[in-house]
Design goal:
Blueprint lengths: L4 H47 L8 H9 L12 H17 L2 H14 L3 H17 L9 E6 L6 E9 L2 H5 L7 E7 L7 E7 L4 E2 L4 H9 L15
Antiparallel strand pairs: 1-2, 1-5, 2-3, 3-4
Helix pairs in contact: 1-3
């Protein structure tokens, strides 16, 4: 006996609706769950490193036993206390490092490190990365843009950094300025290419740098909401 066409359509429609609802729920839950898991894991990692160097008498569960006059049979992991200690310690080091004594001590320590062949290479690399990531000055990219790369007729998203200076600017065409543009790779925008492009060949975009980065990371799947390209 053949299945009625109406039943088949209803069944496919029901399955499609269930599938659509599941995918929608997954899109909502996945970012929240992954973000919460990442924060929870990072806090736990910091706690484990901080409390491993703290004497047992100063562990937070000891204070809870004293405060509430209870006896715990085992040591409990009170997540977040280590993070608070780390934040306070980091704040204190930063405050101390801004003073005359802290700067003098830091210069002395760095001079000692620079005399160590292997250690100085590691320290210099890590320091450069830290200064780049946590730099408080506004050295971020100015705007997102389009340039033709790697050949005419093919366009890529780039991020405008600064106008070229020094020897690079000296070799620029007389009627145009060179602009340093970073062209990121997909889906990892932390790697890419530094290009010096004539200003007249750059098409600036109205979208923010953050939205352009999302577009690059998603391989063209996530557009700014007000700039979604038409499919017709």
């Amino acid at each position: 006996m053949d299945t009625p066409p109406e039943y088949t359509r209803r069944r496919k429609g029901w399955v499609g609706a269930m599938r659509s609802n599941f995918l929608t729920g997954l899109v909502i839950i996945a970012p929240i769950a992954l973000t919460a898991w990442l924060i929870w894991s990072v806090v736990g990692w910091i706690d484990a490193r901080v409390w491993s160097i703290v004497p047992d008498g100063y562990q937070p569960d000891r204070y809870i036993q004293t405060l509430f006059d209870i006896q715990l049979s085992e040591q409990y992991d009170i997540r977040g206390f280590g993070l608070i200690v780390f934040l306070v310690f980091t704040f204190f080091v930063g405050w101390l490092g801004k003073g005359f004594l802290g700067r003098s001590l830091l210069r002395w320590a760095e001079g000692l490190v620079h005399r160590m062949p292997v250690v100085r290479t590691i320290y210099s690399g890590v320091k450069q990365i830290a200064e780049t990531v946590f730099n408080q000055k506004n050295n971020s990219f100015d705007k997102a843009c389009l340039i033709e790369y790697p050949r005419k007729g093919i366009w890529v998203i780039g991020f405008i950094a600064t106008t070229a200076r020094g020897e690079v600017a000296d070799h620029a065409p007389e009627d145009d300025d060179l602009v340093s543009v970073f062209v990121p790779t997909t889906p990892n925008p932390t790697s890419g290419f530094l290009l010096f492009v004539p200003a007249s060949d750059i098409k600036e975009l109205h979208m923010t740098v953050e939205n352009a980065a999302k577009l690059v990371i998603s391989a063209g799947l996530v557009y700014p909401e007000d700039k979604v390209p038409s499919l017709t």
